[in-house]
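Thought: the user wants the 3D structure for the chain below. I'll pass the sequence to the structure tool as-is, report back what it returns, then summarize two notable features.
Action: structure_tool
Action Input:
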Amino acid sequence: MAGRSGVLDALIVGGGPAGAATALALAREGWTVRLVEGSSGAAVRVGETVPPEVRIPLQELGLWERFLAQDHLPSVGNASVWGGSDLGRRDFAFHPYGPGWHLDRGRFDAMLTEAAEGAGAELARLARIVDAVRSGDVWRVTVRAADGLALWEARALVDATGRSAALVRKLGGRRRWWDRMVAVLTCFAPGAGTGAPDAEVLLEAVEDGWWYSAPLPDGSLVTGFFTDADLCGDLHQDGWLRALARTGPTRERLRGRLATGAPVVRSAATVSSDPFDAPAFLAVGDAALACDPLSSQGIVKGMSSGLRAAAALLAERRGRRQALEEERNLFWQGLAEFLGRRASYYGLETRWPASRFWTRRNPGLLLARRLRENPVDPAEGMSLSA
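Observation:
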């Protein structure tokens, strides 16, 4: 795979959508690329819903028609109980990019890695990075593979390891935690007479967080409760079901369905990695910025950041030395825009001014709570640090 010197053009660590998109974009430009994935690829992946804008990176990757042929389930829109007790809807009928999609993640991820391999990238499964150091103009990366330790060399290195940001951390990069949100997830299979679920995402805000449910191509519903880690409390099977019983549209949607297993807890925190000036190194996807799941942008953002990273690496190789620095600057701009949108959306929900979950995301609610707890004479003014 590597050239005559044995040095790869790029080593990409992480075989999810961000890593596969980076590998595909570089390999089709003639780069020697190795895509490292720690798993065997056989694990079952819970489905995910992507917005209509997924069409943009898929078209740029040349995979749109292949994606359509996979028969993922179209998403007609989003329904939400947010900022009030009424159920609102956003229909994708007139969206310029068509519907959103409820994915079969196994098929989707396999499509991306197969496309990268088809373009010439090498896929190395069951391999994990032990160490990475820069030596001259190459990265020397120690890898634990199925047959033992190996030393690989590459001119460029990309961290696509998802929320773990394994390479960023190994290289001493800084991670910023913007919250400590977790997702408590399970799937519900169809019960007798339940029929197919509505082909839309449902969001429902509650006092300590929010609920999400969406159909999967096999007819089941993936359901999650999103709250902060310190607010999880008693959310094993019985506690989770009691919390579900206090919902409205979510409870009705699941009526007659059967949970396929006990709830599992996963990190859903918003976490970012500060870009740092390591030669020929970039983080992509969740390794760079793991977004709040409320945005539904994880996969789209991952593939798009992989495409941008590939373009920056190609430009730098062609002599535009500022290309990586420009990409790092774009990261800061994108982070600021994302945090602004996140604050705006959470700010719509004001029904629970005493809730720690909501006041952590809405400064106005926090101020109102502090005023209620510590009334002041208007003539004396007030302190926001009360």
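Final Answer: Structure generated. Confidence is low (pLDDT under 50) at residues 377-386. The CA atoms of residues 120 and 251 lie 48 Å apart.
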